[in-house]
Write the structure tokens for this entry.
Amino acid sequence: MMAAAKAKGRILTGHRPTGPRHIGHLVGTLEQWAAMQDDYECFFLIADLHVLTTDYEHPGSIQQNISDVMVDWLAAGLDPKRATFVRQSALMEHAQLALLFGMLTTVSRLERVPTYKEQIQQLGLNPSLGLLTYPVLQSADILIYKANLVPVGEDQLPHIELTREIARRFNTLYGETFPEPEGLLTKTPRLPGTDNRMMHSSYGNSIRLGDTPEETAKKIMSMYTDPKRIHATDPGTVEGNPVFDYHDVFNPNKDEIEDFKKRYREGKVGDVEVKRRLAEALNAYLTPLRARRAELIKNPKEALRVLDEGTEKARPLVQATLKEVMGKMGLK
Ligand code: TRP
């Protein structure tokens, strides 16, 4: 594509296809990715191999989830005319490169990765080799494209740090090959779930991009707020109250937000009024996305076609990097 227009470099980023996308994905990553498509050559990865690191006992939902994620991505403004979509498992070069990177990575280094430690604690599981090497596969995802920039959520930064270490180590041992990619965070702070825990598809606390305006309003009206406030005349707390976090992100009327916050602190506005306006603001915010989504779900095969087409476009590229790496590591 227009080489000059994409002079800022190359992006590789992606999601694990774990189910339909929610508004946390939208403001946490997707809007930022969509905005970068003119300035960077973008590769958007459906990391289906990574799903199996924890969910290998439930293979039945992966294909539907891939289709759902692709529809939501395109609805959010990721654009096949300006970006390339990649299905990880269809390019086993990613896994082959990860195997080779595994030679340069110690087990103790991987045992220190925070996401790994958290997963073992949370899931209480006996970790598999696949889970331990999760970030090595992610490093291969990034470096096989020789990407310079990786826009991700905060939890992913330790994986980018490992990617940089692997790139440096490889370059030192075998000669300059990979750029050291930078991680890039969004300005939007992480959006809490409607119950004020972390927003997560499996916690039942997310608002999905596919939810109708009615479903969205219902979820907002039953949202967690200041639990200490019983009557609308009680002074309320705005900080750490997800209703106000959402207003800050979705309500373009900043004067109204300030007025609500002031009256909330003084006990001069009810939760119902604040939530009702939030539901209206959020539904207005999502209207253009929903219109695109309604078109896309008429023909979900089209979203998968876009994914297949991008994958084939990426194939010669990943083959070339793998060949180069094998040669440098003394293989034929
Ligand atoms: N680990 C990422 C997540 O859970 C998904 C992912 C896989 C990824 N490979 C990647 C993100 C490469 C950025 C770059 O969200």
Q: What stands out?
A: The chain has a mean pLDDT of 95. Residues 12-16, 45, 47, 50, 138, 141-142, 150, 152, 156 surround tryptophan (CB under 6 Å). Strands lie at 10-15, 41-46, 83-87, 149-151, 182-184.
